[in-house]
Amino acid sequence: MNPAQSTSQTKGKAVFAGPAPQEMSGARILMAALKSEGVDTVFGFPGGAVIDIYDALMRTDIRHILVRHEQGAVHAADGYARASGRVGVCLVTSGPGATNTVTGIATAYADSIPLVIITGQVPTHLIGNDAFQEVDIVGITRPCTKHNYLVSHVEDLARIVREAFHIARSGRPGPVLIDLPKDVAKASTLYTPPSGDVRLKAYRPNYRPNKHQLRKVAGLMAEAERPVIFAGGGVILSGGSEALTAFARRTATPVTCSLMGLGGFPGTDPLWLGMIGMHGTYRANMAVSNADLLVAVGVRFDDRVTGKTDAFAAQAKIVHIDIDPTSIRKNIPVTIPVVGDCRLTLEALNTLIGENLPQDLPERRAPWLDRIDAWRRSHQLAYRQGDAIKPQYVVEVLHRITGGKAIVTTEVGQNQMWAAQFYHFDRPRHFITSGGLGTMGFGLPAAIGAQVAFPDELVVDIAGDGSIQMNIQEMATAMQCGLPVKIVILNNGYLGMVRQWQELFYEKRYACTGMEVQPDFVKLAEAYGATGLRATRPDEVEAVLQKGIETPGPVIMDFVVEREESVYPMVPAGAPITEMLLV
Amino acid sequence: MTAERHIFTMLVDNEPGVLSRVVGLFSGRGFNIESLCVAETIDPRISRITLVTLANPPVVEQIEKQLNKLVNVIKVRDLSGDDSVKREMALICVQAKPEHRAEILRIVDIFRCKVVDVGLEHYIIEVTGTEGKLTALLNLLKPMGIQKIARTGTVALLREPN
Ligand SMILES: Cc1ncc(C[n+]2csc(CCOP(=O)(O)OP(=O)(O)O)c2C)c(N)n1
Q1: One domain for residues B97 and B145
Q2: What would the mean pLDDT of A135-151 be, rounded to a whole number?
């Protein structure tokens, strides 16, 4: 039966208030449910358990990005979600298809990224029989999803998809997995398009901050002599960057961000302190350590941020704003907890403070801001130029010639930290990096996802020569789908960040961090039908970057950099963040 | 900071995998479980889990928040105070040599528990009570030789209708 016909027929009878139910297969219900969630793209890889779903997918206008490895599908959906703020969607088969998604799911979970992952499953009557390509993916992903489902009855499918999207995108976002057995995808039932809000009795995130707590925060803000705002990924996820910027400027309060918060506050603003933590700037770490008030927004006080927790912000009263109550007082004692959405809370604070700000506030802040400026002048982020290309220089030139406007993804290691330090992010959702899990191989597929979301933007993956090889197969995806991502490899021939630890803390015993055999990245790009470029001297850097950016289609730029360059400042793991090793 | 015993009671969706979510939370985050008791409530869609843990105050706060965060956990309550009733049941198989039989029965009588199985050389005793009562009984029976024991773990309810 033609679905459109059936709708109009039933409508004619005016029996139902909403759209009429239709008899549909699970696979088609899934498509209808995805459409009603506004899904325009699915990242995936087919297999036996999802053939029916692919068959239905083909008959929709949903775009499918065929990856080369399921891990790539999840990272790409993740990059799409981080860049666009929408829910990323993946579709993979059962067994190995499902297990291949686990690293991607854990990556998204660690950074609170909204994803819906649909895995095929063996038919329900075979579940538990060690059937071909059966794994208990719901069991495997329980600790790294926000929630997950096994769909046992086709009648539950539409509701589950709707709940999954609701859970993924609301509250503290996160990945939700739906495991869909093959017979459920084939079975059919009446499908009624959903209407109204999802209501779950045990899941009601609290968005609105407590007014009483907010007044206390405003009071502390007015009294503080040495306040610092510390913002994280929550600001970006909630769309709170503007409110944060207004809050900081209005209260003349300097701002630092965690890695996940970069871009949440303009990296070129005079109140910007730079990133905090293990590879944070001198002034950010000093400011937080000397502050009398720390307003933490959408952060979780990761150990890479705090160093030794007893010494962290030891002179400060701490306000902690977060939508997730479990983040509060998990690692750091807090003076004023505020449970709420970061954007709504900052907006409420702006309203409250707008009315009650002391007149002399800017003057009172002056000595504090002067002190910070002295720290800035005494210890700039720096590196020494030499004969070889400095990786920091590559990022600096990239920043200059792209006007700071590119969407930058990274791999993990030194490349990630140099990107964070030297590409001064001014806008949210332009720095896409695996912060919590630190997943090598994230950057290329994430760039592909971001490029799908923003086909006309420049998307650059700043990569290490080690990490890029972990998902290099996605070059084929970029080629097949016409996604012109640019890859900047800072090629030091080492697993650089691990080598750096070995240099500093293991007396230069470089155990297994030398990459003695490397592919020729230029030829590798060409093998995929893409463009490969190389620079080996500092004076070639700008021209190669310029050419790489201007060349249509995917490009790999191989920068052969100083082999044993290290990321500074560096706080040894577990030390107070004032104990920085400097250049 | 010293660890304290806390009794959490929670209503959860009566669905496959929910217990695993709760237990996985504890094992994954290194929280301790002293005892655990699960069964359906009067509403077949909802089960009650009673869980006893030993943890210091910040960890107790985390446990409660983390439990609340689980999508299938409807309501969590810390019943460690005096405003709740707590009970545990145990079946104790005690060696019953002829010279001890009378003594065991006397103890059973004093503790108002029951002998639910008798053999030539054993009694199985059913006891319900507070943790203190069970411990006291076990201490008295130990010298006779406790052969096996099965305990339910604590269940608890607030002394209020809801
Ligand atoms: C999947 C994975 N395996 C191992 C690590 C540990 N690790 C962290 S950084 C790093 C080195 C990365 O080397 P490369 O990609 O060449 O980047 P560089 O540090 O040299 O910039 C390694 C091995 C990781 N983060 N992720």
Answers
A1: yes
A2: 98
Looking from the CA of residue A467, the nearest atom of ligand 1 is 15
Q: What is the pTM of this model?
A: 0.95
Q: Are residues B73 and B110 in the same domain?
A: no
Task: Compute the mean pLDDT over every residue in chain A, rounded to the nearest whole number.
Answer: 95
Tally the domains of chain B: 2
**Does residue A71 sit in helix, strand or coil?**
helix
Distance from B73 to chain A by nearest Cα, in Å?
Answer: 6
**Number of domains observed in the structure of chain A:** 3
Which residue's entry shows tokens 């998604």? A101
pLDDT in tens, A481-499: 999 999 999 999 999 999 9
Domain carrying residue B153: 85-158
Q: Is the CB of A395 under 6 A from ligand 1?
A: no
Q: Which of B78, B103, B129 is the last residue of a domain?
A: B78
Using a CB-CB cut-off of 8 Å, the residues of chain B touching A203 are: 71
Residue A200 contacts B where some CB pair is shorter than 8 Å: yes
User: Which pLDDT value is given to residue B162?
Assistant: 66
Residue A17 — very low, low, confident or very high, per pLDDT cuts 50/70/90?
A: low
d(CA A516, CA A246): 50
**Which SS3 state, helix, strand or coil, does residue A398 take?**
helix
Judge: A143–B24 Cβ closer than 8 Å, yes or no. yes
| Unique residue bearing structure tokens 């700071």 | A404
Chain B contact set for A326 (CB, 8 A)? 62, 65-66, 69
- Which domain-ending residue is among B18, B50, B78? B78
Q: The tokens of A502 are what?
A: 């070995």
Q: Could you tell me the CATH number of the domain that includes residue A483?
A: 3.40.50.970
Predicted local distance difference test score (pLDDT) of residue B19: 97
The reply to whether A35 falls in a domain is yes
pLDDT at A362: 83
The SS3 of residue B129 is: strand
A89 CA to middle of ligand 1, Å?
27
- Orientation angle between helical segments A342-356 and A211-223, nearest 10 degrees: 60
Kindly report, residue by residue over A223-257, the tens digit of the pLDDT. 999 999 999 999 999 999 999 999 999 999 999 99
Please identify, among A158, A191, A224, the residue that sits at the C-terminal boundary of a domain: A191
Q: Which domain holds residue A422?
A: 391-560
Q: Is B138 found in the same domain as B106?
A: yes
Query: What's the A555 CA to ligand 1 centre distance in angstroms?
Result: 22
CA distance B140 to B146: 10
Is A80's C-beta closer than 6 angstroms to any atom of ligand 1?
no
Q: What does the block give as tokens for A255?
A: 């701002």
Average pLDDT, integer, range A450-474: 98
- Is residue A449 in contact with ligand 1, taking CB distance under 6 Å? no
ipTM: 0.93
Handedness of CA A65, A71, A75, A81 (dihedral sign): positive
